[in-house]
Amino acid sequence: MYVKHSDILRFLDCGLTSDDATWHLSGILTWGHVKILDLTNNNIGIEPENFFQWLKKNLWGELSIDKIILLDNKFTEDNKSKMLQEFEKYGYPQFVM
After folding, report:
1. Three-state DSSP state, 20
2. Structure confidence at residue 27 (pLDDT)
3. Residue-wise over 3-36: b if at least 16 C-beta within 10 A, else e?
4. 70 and 40 in contact (C-beta within 8 Å)?
5. E strands within 6-93?
6. In this structure, are strands 8-11 and 2-5 parallel, antiparallel, or unpaired?
7. What values do phi and psi take at 3, rounded to 5?
8. Hey, how many other C-beta atoms are within 10 angstroms of the C-beta on 96?
9. Which of 13, 15, 64, 17 has the alpha carbon at shortest distance from 37?
10. CB 65: neighbour CB atoms within 10 A?
């Protein structure tokens, strides 16, 4: 289910993979700022590298996101740690995993 409300974007329980998520999210680059990106209950964490690279490329270039929610996405503890450490270095954005 995709829901856009003002500057909140949610893809909840859609079965999104890392590749699917980057494709579906490409349109938000024109928004400039998103308060919350909620991707709860998907499959992004199964092979997260494409999603992680997409975030790194676009968060430090074209897009501003205050909070990303990635609950129940099947991330391993190592993947969670890697992603959180990378983004904490730059202080951006807040992750809920």
Report:
1. helix
2. 85
3. eeeebebbbbebebbbebbbeebeebeeeeebeb
4. yes
5. 8-11, 33-38, 64-69
6. antiparallel
7. -135, 130
8. 11
9. 64
10. 21
